[in-house]
Amino acid sequence: MAKDFQAPRGFHDILGSDLKKFRRITSTIRELLKRYNYEEIITPVVEFAEVFERSIGEATDIVQKEMFVFTDRKGRRLALRPEGTAGVVRAYIQNRLYALRPYHKLFYEGPMFRYERPQAGRYRQFHQIGVEVFGVAEPHADAELLRLADDILKALGISATLEINSLGCKVCRPAYREALVEYLHVVANHLCDVCMDRKDRNPLRVLDCKVETCQEAVKEAPKMVDFLCDECRYHYARLKEYLSELGVSFRENYNLVRGLDYYTRTVFEAVSDELGVAVIAGGRYDYLVEEFGGPPTPALGFAVGVERLMLLVDEPPKDYELYFVIPFGDVHSYALKVADILRRKGKVVELSYRKGGLRKQLELANKLSADYAVIIGEDEMREGVVSLKDMRTGEQRKLKVEEI
What we know:
By secondary structure, this protein is an alpha+beta fold. The chain is 36% helix and 22% strand. Helix 12 links the parallel strand 12 and strand 13.
């Protein structure tokens, strides 16, 4: 096939077994979100680039290297969304949701776009389901959010370790940042080139580097938990108490940060025990609504990477029986009627469009994993019946359609 007619690198089709896994993941999560009383919001795939630059942070890798940015006919800079939170915050303010009630629990589902090196479970177009809670500052909201993340993993049968940390707030983080920068200058000779660039403009990201020399260099780095103000220390302590009371297992990771600048206080990741990468990640962003021009509004949320979960779940078993209707001769009017009656009885029906003898038709039925072949010839049409063949046992008998 000519290169022009292939999907661009990092963009992929989802079909067959992968699509079944995709739908299993999204339907399972949607069912859980219904229990937690989240309501859906659909935001545009395209936003003004400034929406992401302001929220994610101009010094982040996403903004500097990974965003798909373009200009429209009037010269305005637009971007394909690299993550979901910024667009939901913009919609929350633009639609004045804060004026409707004290708090909102929203979720979204859809494609995100980042220009990064494609690899297993990571694409330039990928899909996320995310949740956002606006208007709640108390730590029990953080605990409930982490309980939901834990429920998602258990419902899908995924083994993962929940890691948590606190990044403090505007009051206590500046002192920590100063101490961290000072420490990083001392160990600068052991940092990779990327982290040498990060250590002054975005030092927290050095803690998250996966390069072995960098990981070794930051082992003795200052910990944010040692710099927390009284309010942040109380918030973090209560969160851990609530999680323990809920029976949610967690591990503290003092080097856990997020790649987005808007996070405050609680941050967390669910790290797959099999893949060693995060499959769910999020935290608090108490200042973001205000920075976007809205009223002071505490908020928190997380995002689930669907493609990564697809590497960890099995294809769901078929939960229905398939009836394969096979017409022979000039019986298509009757065959259409039989198929219609069966569908109205709640059956899943495939009407064969293939010409050929019974053997070829039954071979096709097997390829489609049909449970029953509904054979219709001129004799069946005259008698007002069908020949029903059980594809699993081979048993065949004539029945009226209503008797199926």
